[in-house]
Amino acid sequence: MSALPVFNAEPPERADAARNRRLVLDAAERLFAENPSCVTMEAVAAEAGVGKGTVFRRFGDRAGLVRALISDTEIELQEALIRGAPPLGPGAPARERLIAFGAAYLEFLEGHARLMASAEGPSWLSTEVYALYRTHVRLLLEESCGASAPYLADVLMAPLAAPTFLHHRHVRRMSLEELTAAYEDLVARLID
């Protein structure tokens, strides 16, 4: 059985490239912790002591840099979806898996939403990572409610967008537990 691909997995690196990558990620982490909305690729390069071309070649843009910062945690989540224990992983009914996915992703957002929102905005909808999660949700919906699954997958993904999550957490002052319960309620209304 061949292994399924995991998005954001890093290819093998030369020693100097690995050192520069670590310098850049450490610098980016420090700068994003101070003020995420003001971080530029140039500022990260200066903080890391590398040329800005190094940062742009390696990460492409700000969203690529953010993805690299959160990739380890995201890979763990993806592995749990694909090969983990039920209900997040295979083996549980679709409704239970959707609820477990919502809870796991909301927990992921609790630690990374500010960073993600500062870099991605609406471009999240066109990323491979969004496509992976949306496909997961769509397949579970097809298993339980049929034809409208493609549309409903976007409906279930909408509350998991970083800006929406931040609005609920910091403007509406909802706790992570309240958001998780609300997501479970949404799934329950879609699937009997």
CATH topology of the largest domain: Tetracycline Repressor, domain 2
What's the number of extended β-strand segments? 0
Largest sheet: none
| The level-1 CATH class of the largest domain | Mainly Alpha
Portion in strands:
under 5%
Distance between the termini: 34 Å
Q: What class, by secondary structure content?
A: mainly alpha
By DSSP (H or I, 4+ residues per run), the number of helices equals 9
Protein model, in words:
- The longest helix has 26 residues.
- This protein starts with 14 loop residues before the first helix and ends with a helix.
- The chain folds into 2 domains: 47 residues, Orthogonal Bundle (Arc Repressor Mutant, subunit A); 126 residues, Orthogonal Bundle (Tetracycline Repressor, domain 2), CATH 1.10.357.
- 71% of the residues lie in helices and 0% in strands.
- By secondary structure, it is an all-alpha fold.
Q: Which descriptors would you attach to this protein?
A:
0% strand; 2 domains; 192 residues; Tetracycline Repressor, domain 2; mainly alpha; Arc Repressor Mutant, subunit A
Architecture blueprint of SSEs:
Blueprint: H1 15-34, H2 41-48, H3 52-59, H4 62-83, H5 94-119, H6 128-145, H7 149-157, H8 162-171, H9 176-190
